[in-house]
Write a structure and sequence with these properties.
Strand order of the largest sheet: 3-2-1-4-5-6-7
CATH architecture: 3-Layer(aba) Sandwich
Shape: globular
Strand content: 15-25%
Largest sheet: 7 strands, mixed
Number of strands: 7
CATH topology: Rossmann fold
Number of domains: 1
CATH superfamily: von Willebrand factor, type A domain
Distance between the termini: 93 Å
Structural class: alpha/beta
Order of helices and strands: HEHHEEHHEHEHEHE
Number of helices: 8
Radius of gyration: 26 Å
């Protein structure tokens, strides 16, 4: 009996020795989350002035721009946080894709896939650009914290309801938010000037214009890259505001 007990003790001591001799297991290191550099609200025009085809090319255009390798690299380099929304009348801004981190170029492609998968048919009534600006600015308080906060607003028309866009613009730029625009010139050829005067604002803010799907994608691509990599004094001289 004594021999059996001694044998068990020897086995236990041997096992303890093996455990003590084994190198400590390393805890897997967590990859630190990339710090956000830019928070971007993409606000699409879903008003009655936009035909179903126009709305579709806004969505397809954004998806195509996010799949562009140069855009994807710029977004990732800036540590972008992006959300996609649509607006029409006053207090109608609706988030279609919530805040998403684009820390790697492939994240932009996945964001494009989510745009493609969005349900259609959310068209609204009037065009309340001022209200859209104010509501878009509120989104930064819920997941859009970043040193640079930008609202990208698309429309093919002028504001015809809600608060004045210039008043809304002035209100949000006081918070340090930049408002940029993309004017679709299929109805009003002077819309780019209207955006320049009444919609865009903040250091280095600017407006781009487009006539059709191809020019929309090109303008959006240029705009996204500028927003990620350009300083205010490097922005294009055409339609640039310093409000």
């Amino acid at each position: 009996m004594l021999r059996a007990v001694v044998a068990v003790l020897f086995v236990l001591l041997a096992l303890c020795g093996e455990v003590l001799a084994a190198p400590p297991q390393k805890t897997p290191e967590k990859t630190p989350e990339k710090k956000a550099g830019v928070a971007l609200v993409l606000a699409l025009d879903g008003s009655a002035s936009i035909t179903t085809g126009d709305l579709e090319f806004q969505l397809q255009g954004h998806a195509a721009a996010f799949r562009d390798p140069a855009v994807a690299d710029a977004l990732a380099s800036a540590g972008t946080r992006v959300t996609l929304a649509a607006y029409s009348g006053p207090n109608s801004l609706r988030v279609l894709i919530p805040w998403t981190a684009l820390d790697k170029p492939e994240d932009a492609g996945r964001f494009a896939d989510r745009i493609d998968a969005l349900p259609r048919g959310f068209q609204g009534d009037s065009t309340a650009i001022g209200s859209a600006i104010v509501e878009a600015a509120k989104l930064f308080d819920h997941g859009g914290k970043a040193p640079r906060q930008v609202i990208d607003l698309v429309s093919n028309g002028f504001s015809n309801s809600g608060i004045d866009p210039a008043d809304a613009r002035d209100r949000v730029t006081k918070r340090g938010i930049i408002v940029n625009g993309l004017a679709i010139l299929d109805e009003f050829p002077w819309l780019e000037e209207y955006f320049d005067e009444s919609v865009i604002g903040g250091p280095g803010s600017f407006v781009k214009s487009a006539m059709d799907k191809d020019s929309f994608v090109a303008a959006l691509r240029q705009k996204l890259i500028l927003e990620m990599v350009a300083l205010p004094d490097q922005m294009p001289s055409l339609s640039v505001a310093t409000r």
